[in-house]
Amino acid sequence: MVFLRDISERKQAEQEKRQFYRDTIKSVTQGKLDLVLIDEIQEYLDPARLISIVEFPEDCAPARSKVVDFFRINGLTGDAQELFESAAGEALTNAVKHAHGCNVYAGSNDKSIWVAVSDTGTGISTLLLPSATLRRGFSSKVSMGMGYTIMMDATDNIMLCTGPEGTTVVLSINAKVDDPVLTLDDFPDMWDETSVM
After folding, report:
1. Which of 21, 80, 129, 153 is such that its CA lies 20 to 30 A from the CA of 90?
2. Is residue 4 part of a domain?
3. Residue 38 has what pLDDT?
């Protein structure tokens, strides 16, 4: 009975630590990076309109090309598209490097365009989460370690779900909202409101 209580207490401590990291990372990134549970990610994976399987490094380029085509079809072009493509490429590279493969999903709705990269690797250790996501140049393997830095700069929101079953990253960018076209009717007639002295 003592053994079960000890395991339960360790699980509770781990959950509290993850919640602390989640709150801290979300706060430090102004709400841009959120550590989430798989249930919160599933709503992006289920309706995905693009799915690509990456098993080997040479699969990255075709997958990235499909994602870029998806962005263009959904109206994302120019600098925003190039930055978002870089962020998706970093997520793909991380998955291939750390988990030896992944599935790539993309979708859009009236609010955002998103891409998700999901792997079945060992996940990011709880103790490494702050460094892995916030420290510029940090990497648990020999690399430039700029993945999350690039992702943060190129997206409006990142959702990260990681654990022993794998890691899923959802990168999203707000859908472009065209500025309203103003006509003369949109401006008040100040002459009518001016009293004659």
Report:
1. 21
2. no
3. 87
Token pair listed for 184: 């003369």
The answer to the question of residue 13 being in a domain is no
Mean pLDDT by 10 residues, the chain (197 residues): 67 78 78 87 87 89 91 87 89 87 91 92 80 68 57 89 91 69 56 51
Q: What percent of the chain has pLDDT over 90?
A: 21
Size of the chain in residues: 197
Domain presence at residue 136: yes
- Looking at residue 116, which CATH number applies to its domain? 3.30.565.10
Task: Round to whole Å and give the CA distance between 26 and 93.
Answer: 24
Structure confidence by residue, pLDDT tens digits, 104-143: 999 998 888 999 999 999 888 777 777 777 777 665 543 4
What's the farthest any 2 CA atoms get from each other in the chain?
91
- Provide the pLDDT for residue 180: 47
Task: Report the alpha-carbon angle 81-84-86, nearest 5.
Answer: 110
Q: How many domains does the chain have?
A: 1
Rounded Cα distance, 112 and 129, in Å: 26
77: exposed, middle or buried (Cβ count in 10 Å: 0-12, 13-18, 19+): exposed
* Environment class of 5 (CB within 10 Å of its CB; exposed 0-12, middle 13-18, buried 19+): exposed
Half-sphere exposure of 132 (CA within 13 A, CB side): 17
Lookup: tokens for 169: 């990253």
